[in-house]
Amino acid sequence: MNVDADRRSPPCVLVIFGASGDLTARKLLPALERLAGYGALPAEVALVGVARTPMTDAEFGDLCRRSVSGEGHPRWKDLTAAARYVHGDYDDPATYQRLADVLAECDHRHGTAGNRVHYLATPPRLFGPIAISLGKAGLSVPAGEGFVRAVVEKPFGWDEVSARELYAELSSAFAEEQIFRIDHYLAKETVQNLLALRFANSIFEPIWNRTWVDNVQITVAETLGVGERGGFYETTGAMRDIVQNHVLQVLSLFLMEPPTSFHPEAIRDEKVKLLRAIQPLDEEAEIAANAVRGQYTRGGTREDLMPGYRDEPGVDPLSATETFVAMRLEVQNWRWTGVPVYVRTGKRLPARLTEVAMEFRRPPQLPLFPGQEQGLEPDALIVRVQPDEGLSLRFGAKVPGHAFRVQKASMDFSYESFDEQSPDAYERVILDALIGDPTLFIRADEVGRSWRIVDPVMRYWADDERPIPLYQAATWGPPEAGSLVARDGRRWRHSS
Ligand code: BG6
Q1: Do the annotations mark residue 241 as ligand-binding?
Q2: Whole-prediction pTM
Q3: pLDDT tens digit string along 336-347?
Q4: What are the binding positions for NADP(+) in this chain (predicted)?
Q5: Domain of residue 479, residue span
Q6: CA of 248 to the centre of ligand 1 (A)
Q7: Of 52, 140, 193, 299, which one has the fewest beta carbons inside 10 Å?
Q8: Residue 359 in contact with residue 380, Cβ under 8 Å?
Q9: Are 256 and 432 in contact (CB under 8 A)?
């Protein structure tokens, strides 16, 4: 893959906090290796790792090279051979003093011009303390025309209040435009394609509203369980892990008003307007009727028997943490009032599938086709975010023959029809942060508004003494999720 000239990093030091950790080894370093291979990281880009594990510069360079398969491009070898490492506690001012010295040396040696991107690949509880320390050490302020940015990844707080506290800590050192909050879903090609689908075409816009759309369904289904992340998941759950961020971000891009331009702020303004139009479920009765949680139990086939959530390592045997959420939301604005938006996510569901679907209203005169309900399922537009990335338009067509029978047919577009490959989400976000394009990052007001939507439900569940509904691994969630949609006379697009 070649990178456009304007998709090349400017001179800069990329500082990775948590450099000896899992995220760095699994995601960041392989993404950097690919970016180096595409020519996106010129010689004026340097790499510095910071972490508590003692290591020399050379050992850190080795760790970088070991994190990728093969030898890598010569530029990757140069980048890692020159990589620097700062070892120390994150709350010790001496760590930041050493970092300042190393950064000055990088400027001198590599021409990095005082520009820095601090990537906080640490546990989230360290985001605030690191930002504050960077501020105190004078490492958050750009020199002259240059830039300093901080990149953080969800969770952005644990609820609305803690998100506000985190915001206060980050903004004690960084201005909002310096803070890049990652949601890796926004970096998925198919999620970005929502913008092209909606705004590079004219055929969809006339039907993108309550007059034509019957309901919207967003599903983020995973087949995996929590694996080794039980300890983390116990305090997180599906609502905080997926709904508060990935689901609401995808939903807002899908349903927002057209932005006035593709300027990052114009798009983010529209997303936050859409989030504000979602009525939080505040009353207990409303929550009980419109939000469903669930937890997986042992299930699968005899050959492939999967453990229940409570049997996973690091999980409380009496845990009430939800591994499944389904909600019925309403967007109260001119375009969408009255159109239910069903969202759903879960671990250990029967398929790995993320899709956004719009079902259209039925034709006014169904009696024209008596007894053909199956073929007359609602028409639908389905954006397949993953796997099998693409788009389908489903509609009824006559089956050839003497009888007049209607059957569902589909027009499909697959991303495979392009020769180009999609970049990995982390390649995309790292390069965007280096370049300074905030389009795919979440703004503070979006974070706050998303917590406002999920917080009341989380509080209600925390106080609810009834046992959490269960579902067997490899099924589509508890029966209550089906009832949520059936009550409206509808069905989930995938449910058996
Ligand atoms: C992460 C969640 O944000 O997204 C994980 O913390 C989840 O629990 C993952 O598995 C899903 O991402 P993807 O890209 O595999 O759909």
Answers
A1: yes
A2: 0.93
A3: 999 999 999 999
A4: 52, 154
A5: 186-420+444-486
A6: 14
A7: 52
A8: yes
A9: no
